[in-house]
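BACKBONE GEOMETRY TOKENS:
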Amino acid sequence: MEKFYALLITVLTLTAFEATGRPRFISKISSPTQTLYSDSTAWETILDSNSFTDYASFEKNWNYLYPWGSDHNGTARMYAGPKDHDYVSLQKERVLCLRARRVLSDEGNSDKDPFLKINYRSGAVHAKHQVIVSDACPVYEVSGYFKAPVNRGTWPAFWLTAVHGWPPESDILEFKGDSLNWQNTFIKPMQATTQKVAIPDAFVQWHHYKAVLKKVSRRDIEIAYYVDHQLTAVHRGNFMNKPMWIILNLQMEGSAIGAGPITDTHYYIRDILVRRRKTLYAM
């Protein structure tokens, strides 16, 4: 999501998802490092769909806004709280809805670089649990089902970002005003590895987005990205023992293509799953 830097971006491959939801791979993707998990080591579930059951469950597991407040690098300011569900609301069947609405009055500028004029009110939340790939927990899986807006000027995301400083960052879902999903791994402030996946019906159909983060050395982890259970990219970064927030947000304009819409924008999320393993053995 930190896209206003002059970046050295490595684009590994482009994957097109047709209306059937099946991926069409345009070039070869490296396979994740083979790992043998101990039979006695089960997944420990940290978050699941129950966190969207009601507001009591939601507020037990999630915080409103970004970890740092209401503003970021787009033109939407986040508004949400225990008594304010205009922009962050729970729907039927354990669905979270983030809504963006254009503002008519002057709300000033964002207090985050590049300090854009605020044109929208919108919603963001972040999980109370922090992802930390370590010797104690060498494997994490973070996933969910989404209907993400792809119209011009919209910038929805499902991402991990550093608790202290920046990077690391891992963007599992990020649309920027069109139907290309950007799966990014920021390794340094001026260096990222990026995978673009075309999903024309991203807002019409539920699609599953996932990242599996795994220790590969004392310093590095590997991040395997998936869309609809198909591997799309494998990235690597020096993220061992670095805590990361899990963020869901509907930002607007900024890095997105074109001016944002006049009408409301909605972003739907369900079945968020965060789980981890405490043991792995490399093959």
Observations:
- The chain has one helix and 21 strands.
- The longest strand covers residues 265-277.
- Residues 8-282 form a domain with the Jelly Rolls fold (CATH 2.60.120.200).
